[in-house]
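About this split. The held-out portion is used to measure sequence recovery: a designer receives only the structure tokens and must propose an amino acid at every position. Recovery is the fraction of positions where the proposal matches the reference. Here is one held-out target exactly as it appears in the evaluation file.
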């Protein structure tokens, strides 16, 4: 399990519960990560103590999920989620249990969890409780549902996305039944909120294996947002692996691939349906527009692109050019930005007020600023106030 031990505040929660006669275990993702030799970001505890009993043991708590048995214990600046052993009732919306029942044993609690690698518990004494073979699956690099995969997905359709995301993130293979059930139960994904689907897509995009989205598309998990085609939409997805792990350019690349293949009408409509923020929708839409043309070839062409679209879109486009078409557009753009050369009216050594003082107004003023910008793009060393004012005076005299 590598040399990873829970921090002191987590041990304090476990020991406090045990000292009052309750069972208490680390559970879920933190145990999985410890086995993998990865430092957990979050710590979850399951216990035989009821929520009110947990709240009575610790001076600072928050009832973050009290309906489902979860109390957040606050210790200094840290937090630990503590959840009572439970079994879940029916899932009418394929996402949340309508009711939960608190139970007295650990195995019943672990049986409701999604994958065997997340159904492992660890008490303070370090003796792992693993009734479903999660440790062995981790060692073999396998993602396997606890119990029947169809039932797990019917309970919570988001688990299908999570299975693929864990596969991409950890490099694990999906066990045969766990994978085939995704294909058979994919229509359930239509019941999920767009925000949930968006978050899962983004998490997959930001892994080292974003091409896992091909499986999601083939299975039909994204049918609500795509136009079904017979051809392979995403053999190009592997090219995204060459891009930095940043959300904006990877969303842009995904949209460019889907749009080019005809699987979406437009990046704007696709991203809006998935509830992406306005900046992402705008940048990706503009980036897809730019990818219909060849990359800029000269410094001035890059400066014109920057002037029209801004740094965000230009940077996205450069990264997409390199990944999807080839070349060194990022280097070219970086060189332009590093040079500090003017590509916007805002960066001119003169302002609109300077030109107003020389008598320019309205349309004349705008045309002169654009003339000066075009001039400075050709002769960046001449972006000097007196020289530009002299140029304006000379132009006006003619």
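Reference sequence for scoring:
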């Amino acid at each position: 399990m590598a040399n990873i031990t829970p921090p002191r505040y987590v041990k304090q929660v476990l020991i406090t519960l045990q000292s009052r006669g309750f069972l208490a275990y680390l559970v879920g993702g933190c145990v999985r990560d410890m086995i993998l030799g990865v430092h957990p970001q979050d710590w979850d505890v399951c216990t035989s103590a009821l929520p009110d009993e947990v709240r009575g043991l610790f001076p600072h708590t928050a009832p973050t999920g009290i309906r489902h048995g979860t109390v957040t214990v606050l210790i200094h600046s840290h937090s630990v989620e503590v959840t009572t052993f439970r079994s879940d009732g029916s899932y009418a919306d394929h996402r949340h249990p309508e009711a939960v029942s608190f139970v007295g044993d650990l195995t019943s609690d672990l049986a409701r969890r999604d994958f065997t690698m997340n159904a492992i518990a660890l008490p303070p004494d370090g003796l792992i409780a693993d009734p479903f073979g999660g440790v062995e699956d981790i060692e073999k690099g396998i993602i396997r549902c606890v119990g029947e995969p169809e039932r797990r997905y019917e309970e919570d359709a988001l688990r299908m996305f999570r299975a693929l995301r864990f596969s991409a993130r950890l490099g694990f293979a999906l066990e045969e039944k766990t994978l085939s059930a995704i294909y058979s139960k994919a229509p359930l994904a239509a019941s999920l909120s767009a925000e949930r689907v968006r978050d899962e897509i983004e998490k997959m995009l930001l892994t080292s294996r974003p091409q896992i989205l091909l499986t999601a598309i083939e299975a039909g998990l994204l049918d609500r947002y795509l136009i079904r085609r017979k051809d392979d939409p995403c053999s190009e997805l592997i090219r995204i692996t060459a891009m930095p792990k940043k959300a904006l350019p990877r969303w842009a690349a995904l949209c460019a691939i889907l749009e080019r293949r005809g699987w979406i009408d437009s990046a704007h409509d696709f991203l809006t349906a998935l509830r992406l923020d306005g900046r992402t929708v705008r940048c990706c839409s503009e980036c897809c527009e730019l990818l219909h043309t060849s990359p800029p070839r000269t410094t001035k062409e890059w400066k014109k692109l920057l002037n029209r679209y801004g740094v965000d879109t230009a940077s996205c486009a450069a990264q997409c050019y390199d990944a999807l078409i080839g070349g060194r557009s990022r280097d070219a753009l970086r060189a332009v930005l590093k040079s500090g050369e003017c590509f916007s009216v805002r960066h001119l050594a003169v302002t609109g007020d300077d030109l107003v003082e020389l008598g320019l107004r309205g349309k004349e003023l705008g045309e002169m600023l654009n003339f000066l910008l075009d001039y400075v793009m050709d002769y960046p060393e001449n972006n000097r106030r007196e020289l530009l004012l002299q140029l304006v005076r000379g132009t006006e005299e003619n």
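Annotator remark: Strands lie at 24-27, 44-47, 61-65, 70-75, 78-84, 86-88, 100-102, 121-122, 142-143, 173-174.
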